[in-house]
């Protein structure tokens, strides 16, 4: 099985709103649209932190921010263009002072084809939404994070 390392960003603004992208997975059309954090694959020779910084810029246009701590880890198997993939995801906390306009001009062709919308979500909106969020525990783990519970070691999530 192919292995894919990925860096994902838990991007919070000054009002503790979380940026998420709504996507439709072209390789899993049976799935409904779902919301995910910015992020993507780690390139050869790149660290997870370097990938997080690059992905943040490519998917949002945001530069010059510090990549915060590695807070969550997620292992998942999913179908990709040429078969199943075992993903090793690391989630990094990043804070921005303002929720600036998001620049998606550096999206890859696959990202452009998958993208449906984006939104800065409040915790209350997430909690009351019936939409699907990945990671699946997002509402619960974000609640803890926003309450000031920064994990000493990255939490394993699903």
How much strand?
35-45%
Global structural class: alpha/beta
| Number of separate helices | 4
The H/E string reads EEEEHEEHEHEHE
The major beta sheet can be summarized as: 5 strands, mixed
Question: What percent of the residues sit in helical stretches (DSSP H or I)?
Answer: 10-25%
State the end-to-end distance: 20 Å
How many runs of DSSP E, i.e. beta strands?
9
Question: Shape from CA axes?
Answer: globular
Folded structure, characterized:
The chain is an alpha/beta fold and about 160 residues long. It is built from 4 helices and 9 strands; from the N terminus they run E-E-E-E-H-E-E-H-E-H-E-H-E. The strands form 2 sheets. Strands 4-1-6-5-9 form a 5-stranded mixed β-sheet. A hairpin with a 2-residue loop joins strand 5 and strand 6 (about 85-95). The protein is globular, with a radius of gyration of 15 Å.
């Amino acid at each position: 099985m192919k292995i894919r390392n990925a860096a994902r960003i838990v991007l919070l603004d000054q009002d503790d709103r979380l940026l998420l992208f709504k996507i439709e997975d072209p390789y899993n059309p049976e799935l409904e649209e779902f919301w995910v954090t910015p992020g993507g694959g780690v390139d050869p020779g790149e660290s997870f932190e370097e990938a997080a910084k690059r992905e943040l810029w490519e998917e949002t246009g945001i530069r010059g921010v510090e990549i915060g701590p590695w807070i969550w880890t997620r292992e998942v198997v999913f179908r990709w263009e040429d078969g199943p993939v075992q993903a090793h995801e690391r989630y990094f906390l990043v804070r921005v002072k303002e929720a600036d306009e998001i620049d998606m001009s550096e999206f890859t062709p696959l990202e452009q084809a998958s993208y449906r919308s984006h939104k800065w979500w409040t915790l209350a909106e997430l909690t009351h939404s019936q939409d699907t969020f990945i990671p699946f525990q997002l509402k619960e783990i974000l609640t803890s994070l926003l309450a000031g519970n920064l994990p000493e070691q990255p939490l394993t999530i699903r």
